[in-house]
Specification:
The complex is a heterodimer of chains A (275) and B (369). Chain A is α/β, with parallel strands linked by helices and 275 residues long. In chain A, 39% of the residues lie in helices and 23% in strands. Chain A folds into two domains: 178 residues, Rossmann fold (3-Layer(aba) Sandwich), CATH 3.40.50; 78 residues, no CATH class. At the A-B interface, helix 4 of A face helix 1, helix 2 and helix 3 of B.
Chain lengths: 275, 369
């Protein structure tokens, strides 16, 4: 990873509060082009709020947010529209439109931003996106309610990737997936990043995901990002929460799993065996 | 170097060459896909050596042109070749749309599905009624299991909170009946009979019917929505595993409260409607309130009140049962909660009106004219 790579997301002095409750205060964060940045933090430290502030769903009290070197705050909707074409978002519950089929869900952003695409091309794009994210070939005409949790997340990623974005936001993508499905999903994110040159902003609680695919990890605590770095860098820090998070029984298990997995990694590229 | 995607056609060494230029990315595609589709012939050479950036959609268009026209791709750089391999790997026969059924089969299917649904609802409702009676029997045997707090809480929500809206509605309906009745009866010089009209229709029909419709809209719908979201959140399952019967804890209190509140609300609605009519008579027909009340007491037989008091609890039972039954049927997603809530209100009002017609015939037969 190029250390000097230009920041694709830049957050400076962000402050968010809901009434009396302060979520962020003086939060700084930088996401570099081409990296997978994991964002971790205890429950209620505002990981999702941070993501919502970056993509403009949440108006912060103070601070600056730049995405693609463009300021995000205090801009009107029309000015943000071109930026919205350049990122894709997978929400926690996948947020698929329940009245549309999977294929139609994938086509929504295409139809919205590029109304001149022909119906045939739209169908073809939906079809290869569905295959790319590892959904079965008969998934296109299904409705979200007919899909399993893992398949729904894959469909959500397919929709997020519909416009070939440069930047992908994932909010707890592996939460609620079985371990096989979760590691297949990790692999999918990694493959997509490598193939499409994506930058990924990944909120997760899943230590296996952090070890397996994240280039750097940002730790949220005390209303701000207390540390950003690779996992070995974070482990070298003397912070109670970080030590507990990565050195706890689950953290150690994930670390060992990564070490054990290092040799046989090339064998399991695309599992897709979630139920 | 972001330029619109385009291609030029030329013939080199006896082969048709399509030379692509610009960025083959979604924002820059423009008319390129349409132009490519209009091209005649096949066996092109697709030259990608001059292109700028490319994304998967650009790669897909190149790939599909090569695939459909037996084309040959040349001049692809490292990154471009990788992308092309990616989309090629993803090119599988994927179903995008459901198979369209034939129109006849579709209509038949819809009729069949609707019939099945109606039958299932009917049987389900009877089953639900039975389950409720069993729960009721077990509560009667062990009165300690009766959830008084829950019932009292429902009293407030179903009854007390509805006072304002039902009062206002009944008052206005009373005025409208009086006004419309007076206009018609004046033609026969029988304006005094407006009082008969107000008194009897309010107590016998309007009070209870309007209240039933309002309670179905307010409480029947909220029962369905509450129980539906509780089922979605697996609260109902959690209850069962702890040994609490959802019938006893959720359904019975709501049904009790509605059955008990309906007569009270209906009586209140009838009285307010009569008051509305009385005020109209006082102001517009110059019938003083004392005369109005005396006349009401003369013309309204006690059997009218019995009719109200018999009908109201039955309607309450139907409204609460339709609401709870639909709520407990929710299985899949949040959208279903909305659908079931609508169904609960529609069924409740429909059944109330059908039963009201039966009651009217029945009471006439037994001589309660």
């Amino acid at each position: 990873m190029n250390e000097e790579a230009d920041p694709i997301i830049e957050v400076r002095g962000l402050r968010n509060s809901f009434g009396e409750q302060v979520i962020h205060d003086g939060l700084d964060l930088e996401v570099r082009r081409g990296e997978i940045l994991g964002v971790v933090g205890g429950s209620g430290t505002g990981k999702s709020v941070l993501m919502r502030s970056i993509i403009g769903l949440q108006q912060p009290d103070e601070g600056e947010v730049h995405v693609f070197e463009e300021p995000m705050l205090d801009r009107d909707d029309a000015e943000l529209q071109p930026l919205r074409k350049r990122w894709g978002i997978l929400f926690q519950g996948a947020a698929l439109f329940s009245t549309l089929t999977v294929a139609e869900n994938v086509q929504v952003p295409l139809r919205e931003f590029y109304p001149r695409l022909s119906e045939r091309l739209l169908d073809e794009i939906a079809a290869y996106k569905i295959v790319m994210v590892g959904l079965p070939e008969d998934a296109g005409p299904k409705f979200p309610a007919e899909l399993s949790g893992g398949m729904r997340k894959r469909a959500g990623i397919a929709r997020a990737l519909a416009l070939d974005p440069e930047l992908l936001f994932l909010d707890e993508p592996t939460a609620g997936l079985d371990p096989i499905g979760a590691s297949a999903f990790d692999q999918l994110v990694l493959n997509l990043r490598d193939q499409l040159g994506l930058t990924v902003f990944l909120i997760t609680h899943d230590l296996d995901t952090l070890y397996a695919i994240c280039d750097r990890v940002a730790v949220l605590a005390d209303h701000r990002v207390i540390a950003v770095g690779t996992i070995p860098e974070l482990l070298a820090l003397d912070h109670e929460w970080i030590q507990e998070y990565f050195r706890g029984p689950r953290g150690r298990a994930a670390e060992e799993a990564v070490e054990a997995d290092a040799e046989s990694k090339s064998a399991t590229t695309d599992g897709g065996g979630d139920s | 170097m972001s330029t619109v995607a385009r291609f030029t056609e030329s013939v080199e060494d006896g082969r048709r060459v399509l030379r692509f230029q610009g960025d083959l990315t979604l924002p820059r595609l423009g008319v390129l896909p349409a132009r490519l589709e209009r091209l005649k012939g096949d066996r092109f050479v697709l030259d990608l050596s001059d292109i700028g950036r490319m994304d998967t959609i650009g790669a897909w268009i190149v790939h599909r042109t090569a695939r459909d026209r037996q084309g040959e791709i040349v001049g692809a750089g490292e990154g471009v070749a990788t992308l092309l391999r990616q989309v090629e790997a993803a090119d599988r026969p994927v179903k995008v749309r459901p198979d369209p059924p034939s129109p006849i089969a579709r209509v038949l299917g819809q009729v069949g599905a609707a019939t099945m649904e109606a039958g299932r609802t009917f049987v389900g409702l009877i089953g639900f009624f039975g389950a409720m009676l069993i729960a009721l029997a077990s509560v009667i045997r062990q009165p300690r299991r009766f959830r008084l707090n829950a019932v009292v809480q429902r009293f407030e929500v179903v009854g007390v909170h509805a006072f304002g809206i039902i009062g206002l509605m009944s008052f206005l309906v009373g005025i409208v009946i009086a006004q419309q009745g007076a206009v018609q009866l004046r033609q026969f010089g029988a304006e005094i009979y407006t009082i008969n009209l107000i008194g009897r229709s309010s107590i016998k029909e309007l009070g209870v019917l309007m209240t039933a419709i309002m309670v179905a809209g307010r409480s029947g719908s909220s029962f369905a929505a509450q129980l539906g979201s509780m089922k979605l959140a697996e609260e109902v399952d959690a209850m069962r595993t702890i040994g609490v019967s959802p019938m006893e804890a959720l359904v019975l209190p709501r049904v009790f409260a509605t059955v008990l509140m309906m007569p009270l609300l209906s009586f209140y609605a009838a009285i307010v409607a009569i008051m509305g009519g009385g005020i109209f008579c006082w102001i517009s027909l110059e019938i003083p309130p004392v005369t109005f009340v005396q006349r009401i007491r003369e013309v309204v037989p006690l059997t009218d009140l019995w009719q109200l008091l018999i009908k109201a609890p039955v309607f309450g039972l139907i409204i609460a049962m339709a609401g709870c039954f639909q709520g407990m049927q929710v299985k899949h997603d949040a959208e279903e909660v909305g659908l079931r809530t609508t169904t609960a209100v529609v069924h409740a009002i429909f059944l109330v009106i059908v039963l009201d017609a039966f009651f009217a015939v029945f009471f006439t037969e037994v001589g309660w004219l």
